[in-house]
């Protein structure tokens, strides 16, 4: 006992007390924390790890508005069974998002197309073929105004000549032809074809609307005769 007493110094006693406070005293202080005494200011950054969260501890009501952005979602994490009925509305779909390769075969049926949704500007050139039109589908009421225009030109004996006829303004030619005023083997046709207008005497350019019809022939008889040309026009 005398040996222990001889070894006790002020420094030994203070160092032992310090060790006690660190090892035991801190635990005692932590155990004595009052309710709600640890706030966000007492928690170090990154101190709360995922493994420290209890199951179902983070609920939807605990998430801030716009807290979960698209770049935070793993690929394939939002499956179709996770989307509520009517959750994806038209206003939620970006422009040009639904492309043709995203549509299933036969997905767009006639009852899914709004009235007057498919206009003539939406139909590709030559998209509506004859075998796509049912019998009796195109009636007179479905066609624009149709007119027939005629023109006659005199052709002298032993001479060639031609006759042109134009469609009224705003109409285009859909058919036409020509005939001689009299029937004779000495009267022959050289050509009958659509034209852009009566001023057209050459070959018709591709893409130009047909504005009329032209008939050309040769009169090998001894008397003058006349070529009659006609054209069917539609709005």
Give the distance, in angstroms, between the N- and C-terminal Cα atoms.
128 Å
Order of helices and strands: HHEEEEEE
Largest sheet: 3 strands, antiparallel
Could you give the count of β-strands?
6
- Uncertain residue segments: none
Task: Give your account of this protein's structure.
With 235 residues, the chain is α+β, with helices and mostly antiparallel strands. The protein has a domain at 146-234: Jelly Rolls. Helices cover 12% and strands 23% of the residues. The longest helix is centred in the N-terminal third of the chain and has 22 residues, at 10-31. The mean pLDDT is 79.
Summarize the structure.
With about 240 residues, the chain is of the alpha+beta class. The chain contains 2 helices and 6 strands; from the N terminus they run ααββββββ.
Features:
rod-shaped; three-stranded antiparallel β-sheet; 2 helices; 235 residues; alpha+beta; single chain; Jelly Rolls
């Amino acid at each position: 006992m005398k040996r222990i007493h001889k070894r006790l110094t002020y420094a030994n006693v203070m160092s032992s007390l310090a060790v006690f406070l660190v090892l035991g005293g801190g635990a005692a202080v932590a155990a004595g924390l009052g309710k709600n005494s640890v706030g966000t200011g007492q928690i170090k950054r990154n101190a709360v790890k995922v493994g420290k969260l209890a199951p179902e501890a983070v609920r939807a009501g605990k998430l801030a508005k716009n807290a979960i952005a698209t770049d935070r979602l793993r690929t394939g994490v939002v499956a179709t069974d996770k989307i509520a009925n009517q959750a994806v509305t038209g206003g939620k779909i970006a422009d040009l998002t639904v492309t043709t390769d995203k549509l299933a075969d036969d997905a767009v049926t006639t009852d899914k197309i709004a009235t007057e949704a498919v206009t003539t500007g939406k139909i590709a050139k030559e998209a509506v073929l004859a075998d796509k039109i049912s019998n009796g589908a195109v009636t007179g009421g479905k066609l624009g105004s149709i007119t027939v225009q005629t023109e006659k030109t005199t052709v002298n004996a032993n001479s060639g000549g031609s006759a042109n006829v134009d469609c009224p303004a705003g109409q285009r030619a859909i058919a036409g032809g020509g005939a001689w005023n009299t029937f004779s083997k000495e009267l022959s046709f050289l050509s009958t074809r659509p034209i852009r207008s009566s001023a057209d005497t050459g070959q018709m350019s591709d893409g130009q609307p047909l504005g009329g019809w032209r008939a050309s022939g040769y009169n090998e008889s001894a008397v003058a005769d006349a070529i009659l040309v006609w054209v069917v026009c539609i709005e």
